[in-house]
Structures are given as structure tokens and as C-alpha cells.
Amino acid sequence: MSHEWRNVLLEPSATILEALDIINKEALRVALVVDKNHSLVGVVTDGDIRRGLLSGINLSDAIEKVMNTAPTVAPLGTSREALAELMESKGILSIPLLRDSQVVGLETLQGALGKPRCENPVFIMAGGFGTRLRPLTDNCPKPMLKVGNKPILETVIRSFIKAGFCNFYISTHYMPEQIHQHFGDGSDLGVKISYVHEEEPLGTGGALGLLPEDLPQDLPLIMINGDVLTKVDFLRLLSFHVENDADATMCVREYDYQIPYGVINGEGSKITSMVEKPIQRFFVNAGVYVVSPRVIQSVKKNQKIDMPTLLEKHMEERQKVLMFPIHEYWLDIGRMDDFNRAQMDILSLGLE
């Protein structure tokens, strides 16, 4: 049983943003809503929040709008084997433990089974020139620039290792020898690392055509840009993809843009409404994907194609391309101010 379960308790008056803060800070991936007597009122997971974001709910809304008011629970004293079996049958990652109706503990699937080992391949795009970070990238590929005391690429790989992944492929183009020399075959990190090299840039999707034919035929692959730092739950992302029988899943990030003027709507010369400096919200590509074998196999060797074009092609075929909102920390280190921000963020993120 987790000893940190008291850290994930919330009152019913809490907001979705407060629940997010708890889920992102703690490793338990859940928030428990309790009343003054510690009786369980509801459970909130990051999946509940993602579904709420997709349906237009705001982070300032009350937690009751997204919480599950009839969660799976178990009495204190239930064996770990029985709890693991119940969680696997229900497809959930944790179970509140109750005495009468009061919360007295929380068991997680990982805690009941031990640390999982995930065989799904991880494909990291590390071939870019990093032109917007010159002169830092004149003699160093962008993924090898240090954030804190490690290269960006090592931090990305270690975040996957922490989640249980062990099978990595890295796509290189610009100064590949520095990446090879630092990581080798991955044995120093306790994982397997293989490389594919783009003789010329093939676009964000083209490198898929260079992957070896002996990739697992039944396992989807996680694909990520080598300059993205994130605390997204990779196992939850993978489960979402598999459960929905997706061809591809794109991680998306909510992006707000405030129009700096008053917006006027009208019919002919008649003003019908006025909105002062409205905020428009969009979902933008976060540079993290899950890709099923059928999509990988559709990319020919040395074919130039970007990921949006590749995904649009499969959308036309099966309508099985989904999006997965990221509410966790995410930073694309594309510009100098992003790089400087990463140097400050890394100290407080637990990614070091």
C-alpha cells in the first residue's frame, strides 16, 4: 500500500486545477475527493480530466464535473493478489482502500505487481540542425545540449526508463557521432539502443521507413521529438491508444491566444456583437505520438513525409487517429528562451 496516499486527498470544493496539481506532483496518478469525515466522495484520474478538457470544461470548474462518483474500491485488508486481479479486470491503476466508508489507504497496480517492464519500442527523433539555437548548435547537435548536468536526449531516455521502457531507437542526421559516443548500445543505462541514420532529412514521419523489419509486429511504438521535455504518463498514453484500437495517437497541448483588439461582428453595416480582446483556445501538436505497426509499415524506405501528412492519410482510411491532451509539464526546446527556461525548470521537475 502506498504511504503517500494522504497527499492526494481533496475536499469537494476543490477545482479541477487543484486536482491537476496533485496528480502532477504525486506519483500516484489519482486524486481522492473526501468529505470532512474522510468518507470517499469521488475519484479523479488524469483520464477524467483529459476527457473533461476535450468536452470544453475549464480548469477553474469544480472537481465534481469530472470526478467518478462510483469508483472501484476495496476493504482494507484485501490481499495484494486480489487487488491486482481486480485492477487488471477493471483496467484501472489504483484502488482506494476503505474501512466502512472512510478512506484509509490506496493500492496501485504497480505496487501490487512490482515495476512493469514495457517492451514497446521508443523512437526518438534526434536528427535536427537546431538552427534557432545557434551558436550553441554549431558544434553540438541540439539533443546533446546540456540541460542541468545531462544532455536533453539523456533526460528524455531516462524518463522512459523510469516508466519501464527498455527498447530504444534513435534517428540521427546532424553530427550523429556525438550521440553514438555518448549512448553507445545503451548498456550503461541498462537498456537497448539502436540507431537509424537519415542521409538527408526525411521529415518528421519519414524516419519511420528506416526502422528495421524485426520490430515487434503486434506492439505500437511511441515516437517523440528529441528536444521535448515532458512528464506525461507514457504508460497511460499507451493504454489509451491500445484501448481505443487507434492507428495513431497524437499528444496535444492546449494553447491560448489572446487577440489584442476588440473583435466586432456584424451583419452588413449593423454591429451585432462586440468582444474585447477575446481569448481563443486551440489544441496544438506536442511532438509525442503512439504509432501502430500498420502506420509504420505504410512508410517506404527514404520516403519524405511529415507526421501530419502521414496521419491525414490514415485518417482518410480508417478514422482511427486520436488525440491525447497533455496537462502535465511539457516544453519544446526550440528557441533560446525555451532553452533558458529548461535550465530553471529541470531543478524542480524531478527529471534530473
TrEMBL record:
It holds the Pfam family NTP_transferase. The keyword Cytoplasm does not apply. It comes from the Bacteria. Keywords: CBS domain. Residues 1-59 form the CBS domain. PANTHER family: SUGAR-1-PHOSPHATE GUANYL TRANSFERASE. This is Nucleotidyltransferase family protein. It comes from Vibrio barjaei. The lineage of its organism: Bacteria, Pseudomonadati, Pseudomonadota, Gammaproteobacteria, Vibrionales.
